[in-house]
TrEMBL record:
It is an enzyme of class 2 (transferase). It is found in: Cytoplasm. The keyword Magnesium applies. GO terms for cellular component: cytoplasm; motile cilium. The gene is TSSK1B. It comes from Rhinolophus ferrumequinum (Greater horseshoe bat). Gene3D superfamilies: Transferase(Phosphotransferase) domain 1. CDD domains: STKc_TSSK1_2-like (cd14165). Residues 12-272 form the Protein kinase domain. InterPro entries: Kinase-like_dom_sf, Prot_kinase_dom, Protein_kinase_ATP_BS, Ser/Thr_kinase_AS. Belongs to the protein kinase superfamily. CAMK Ser/Thr protein kinase family. Its cofactor is Mg(2+). It catalyses: L-threonyl-[protein] + ATP = O-phospho-L-threonyl-[protein] + ADP + H(+); L-seryl-[protein] + ATP = O-phospho-L-seryl-[protein] + ADP + H(+). This is non-specific serine/threonine protein kinase.
């Protein structure tokens, strides 16, 4: 029996294909019970690799069943047929994903970015409070509902964190995700703190939201890693970002895992807090942000790619005079994300601000 017939018997009328990979596909369908359209993820066990079947799929199913948050895609039903196909019925992101939204409309205004980023950060706090980590945060996995609210999706690389006898979270050794969003500790192939990894990816996402381009060029992983470890983050001159926004991004893209912000610190940051919006654009131009540093004090380079948004070419920032040992090529390999495209190739380069001599180091 084909997918359409199986789903019809369960009360779903199959619509269009939304995406397809080597062993999974996603279709839209109308639910006769719910009276609205849903997304159906269909996984073929016969085609899926062993590690996916033994490790990742059971984790995803367990986690989807336990999550219930307004900014996380809802899971309505999960069932399996005798011929080894798994059907996951989920909320449909009717407005597509955030990457397509930005490619079509360009960078978001800070107020819109703040709203969406707060929704995403609230979803991540909910997960982290449950000791659940996503490990594949990227714009393609952020769906938009009919009102353009964020809905976090695709928990294929998620897991529940374990704790040791002292109550400390154990490190992860599975290096998964997409290179453009991966933290330097993951790129180096060393055991990492998964919650801290999620925070780096949040920083990349916020940069993309407000800049419309990637913070780092992942076409050369070794070069990208060197720039990341030097804590260089450059911002497009044309975007006129506020100092608070750049400060938050800079602190999330912190290569030192012990100094990178935690999710509670992100949600309490002055840029994320709606009440903090009384700061005028004039005050920002005068450098009167809440950290007492000039907006240009949050630096450095990053960048991007050929693209759909047709932005200006990026200036090459001057690297800091610092030597870093280079990782071997084999340590730079990531597990391939379950997407048909790599995000970095979808967004372009922009003109960036020159980094200041001293980045801000005050904590928010």
């Amino acid at each position: 029996m084909d997918d359409a017939a199986i789903l019809k018997r369960r009360g779903y009328i199959v619509g269009i294909n939304l995406g397809e990979g080597s062993y999974a596909k996603v279709k839209s369908a109308y639910s006769e019970r719910l009276k609205f359209n849903v997304a159906v993820k269909i996984i073929d066990r016969k085609k899926a690799p062993t590690d996916f079947l033994e490790k990742f799929l059971p984790r995803e199913i367990e986690i989807l069943a336990m999550l219930n948050h307004r900014s996380i895609v809802k899971t309505y039903e999960i069932f399996e047929t005798s011929d080894g196909k798994v059907y996951i019925i989920m909320e449909l992101g009717v407005q597509g994903d955030l990457l397509e939204f930005i490619k079509t409309r360009g960078a978001l205004h800070e107020d819109d970015a703040r709203k969406k980023f707060h929704q995403l950060s609230s979803a991540i706090k909910y997960c982290h409070d449950l000791d659940v980590v996503h490990r594949d945060l990227k714009c393609e996995n952020l769906l938009l509902d009919k009102d353009f609210n964020i809905k976090l999706s695709d928990f294929g690389f998620s897991k529940r964190c374990l704790r040791d006898d002292s109550g400390q979270l154990t490190l992860s050794k599975t290096f998964c995700g997409s290179a453009a969003y991966a933290a330097p500790e993951v790129l180096q192939g060393i055991p990492y703190q998964p919650k801290v990894y999620d925070i780096w990816s949040l920083g990349v996402i916020l940069y993309i939201m407000v800049c419309g381009s990637m913070p780092y060029d992942d076409s050369n992983i070794k070069k990208m890693l060197r720039i990341q470890k030097e804590h260089r983050v450059n911002f497009p001159r044309s975007k006129h970002l506020t100092g608070e926004c750049k400060d938050l991004i800079y602190r999330m893209l912190q290569p030192d895992v012990n100094r990178r912000l935690h999710i509670d610190e992100i949600l309490s940051h002055c840029w994320v807090q709606p009440k903090a919006r009384v700061l005028s654009s004039t005050a920002i131009k005068e450098g009167e942000n809440s950290q007492g540093t000039e907006p240009s004090d949050i630096p450095e380079p990053g960048s991007d790619k050929k693209s759909a948004t047709k932005l200006e070419p990026q200036e090459e920032a001057q690297p800091e005079a610092r030597s870093e040992s280079q990782p071997e090529e084999e340590t730079l390999q990531l597990q391939v994300s379950k997407q048909l495209e790599t995000t970095g190739e979808q967004l372009s380069r922009e003109t960036v601000e020159e980094p200041p001599a001293q980045p801000p180091e005050t904590q928010t």
